[in-house]
Amino acid sequence: VILLLQYNMVLSYHFLTFREESCGEGSGVEILENKPYTDGPGGTGQYTHKVYHIGMHIPSWFRSILPKAALRVEEESWNAYPYTRTRYTCPFVEKFSIDIETYYKPDTGNQADVFNMSATEKRQRNPIDIVTDPIAAHEYKVEEDPRLYKSTKTQRGPLRDDWIEEYNNNPGKTPIMCAYKLCKVEFRYWGMQSKIERFIHDVMVRAHRQAWCWQDEWYGLTMEDIRQLELETQGLLYIDKRPHGNIKEITQI
């Protein structure tokens, strides 16, 4: 339903929007590095190193086990679209990491194994459907419901519960894209591994629902437009640091 070549721009737009949504007590994003590379994951691409001051943007059960100083997550990302790799670490939390590899393919997720996974990894596969996967009541927004959303610019949508089957019965009628993700999580707190895995799943469902339902905002933009928006966003946002180094919020100026 979305062109493979479009989605690289969608990812960048979604990150910019996330930065503006992230304003709030103890929250913010710093970009430490943003530079091209020629010999890295996926070959040639763009490397970014960011710091997320996550504040209230994580579940209460997660905040409860972390010291206040640990509410900082570092992200390293290698974007060689249609391949990307992203790694998250927390400098103040021992043995915590999330490593995500992604291949974007123009299909409905019917490729058996794009990562050459082991038999154990294959048994842990978990398909995500942006239409039928449940959303927590406090996360649900009518304007981000693919069952209800119809694009004014593209006339795409709403999506039915059987939208994938509908496409497979008539392939080629509309463009489509699937994100194949291999997530490796290390979080050695007793009883918390499954919770963090569920949290990652829920974040991915919400992010890809937003990518679909925000298409009237990003449709027609070019990567040059995105680069300009990045410059404007960096000029509009700053991190307001209080005495003792506490980060209060990202504030518009």
* Main sheet summary: 6 strands, antiparallel
Q: Using only CA atoms, what is the Rg?
A: 19 Å
Please name the CATH architecture.
2-Layer Sandwich
Briefly note the CATH topology name: Alpha-D-Glucose-1,6-Bisphosphate, Chain A, domain 4
Query: Overall pLDDT, averaged?
Result: 78
Strand percentage lies at 25-35%
Q: Regarding CATH, which class?
A: Alpha Beta
Q: Which structural category fits the helices and strands?
A: alpha+beta
Low-confidence stretches: 237-253
> Termini, distance in Å?
38 Å
Number of helices: 7
Q: What helical percentage do the residues reach? A: 25-40%
Order of H and E elements: HEEHEEEHHEHHHEE
Full CATH superfamily name? START domain
Number of domains: 1
Pfam families: IP_trans
Protein name: Phosphatidylinositol transfer protein N-terminal domain-containing protein
Domain Phosphatidylinositol transfer protein N-terminal: 6-234
GO molecular function, one term: phosphatidylcholine binding
